[in-house]
Every structure is written in C-alpha cells, then in structure tokens.
User: What shape does this take?
Amino acid sequence: MILPNQLTVLRIILTPVFFVLFITGEPLLVQLSFVVFIIAAITDWYDGWLARKFNYITEWGKFMDPLADKILTSTAFFGFVFVGILDLWMVILIILRDILITGLRSYADYRKVSFTTANSAKWKTFFQMFFLYYLLLIYTARTCKTLFEGNEKLFASLFNPQLIFWLMLAITVFTVYTGITYIISNRFLIKRLFRSEN
Assistant: This one.
C-alpha cells in the first residue's frame, strides 16, 4: 500500500482514538484528543500533497480519502453532541447530506460519469472545518487552568450556547442547501446514471 493510502488508513484509525479521549471530559485526555485530531488533519493534508506531487493516485485512494475526512469530521460533530454542546438533529442532517452526496459521487465515479461540483460545496467544507476547529480550540483551552482562570468571562462569551446554536444552525442550513443544489445541478446526469443502469 502506497504512503498516501497508509496515511488515509491512519486517519481512520485515529478517529475513534480521538472520540474516546474527547468524551472522557478529563482535562488531560481532552487536550490529548485535540492533538490527535490535529495529527489526523495533518495526514489529510500530507497524503493529498503526496498524491498530487508524485502522482500517487489510486481508485482506492480516490474513494477512501474523502470518506476518511467525512468519518473524522462526523465523529468530531458527534463528540460535541455527546458532551452536550451541539444538537443531534443538526449533526444528523449534515451527515445524511454527506452520505447521500458522497454515495452519488462514488457511484458516478464507478460508472465513469463526471459530476459538477459547485464552489458552494467547497465553502461548506471550509465553514464546517473552521467551526469545528473553533469549538475544539475553545473547548480544549477551557480545560487548561492557566488559560481559563482569570478569563472566565471571555470563554463564556466565546462559548456562549446561543452563539454556538445559531452558528451551527447556519452551517446546517448551508450544508443542506449545497446538497439540494448539487442534486438539482446534476439532475440530468443522475437520471442518465440510473437509467443506463436499468
């Protein structure tokens, strides 16, 4: 197995490690979970860089790399549901959208059909990741006494439940919107894809 694919597998392996450490609520383990998440995110960047630079591109990698990303981000979202920060229904909507679109794209690749990806989908990924890093950073920083003590009001403002709710709601709505527009913009290709199967 080539190195980029090994890094993809490593990212998948690190995901449950991150989750278990994160949901303990123990300050040191939560901090360690943040480190694990960052390492997993770095493997995502590095395996993509290796694949492009040395043309290490395989069908397995093309399928598993985005799937590994979805597993990591979905697990992080569920982690925040578990600790009572995010609402489950929003996370479920985001994950259902990603499962549907990832499944369609994978099947289209299998059938050698190219779908159009809108820029809004890239922005969706950016907003999701930015929000996740924001939550992880603030949530982890709260477990560090040297950072938290004396800055309680600042952390209360940054981690305000209403702020988080409305940000997550906006991301959820935008994520669902990108899924709907993706299907609409590719509707004729999707019809042809399944018609040709029959």
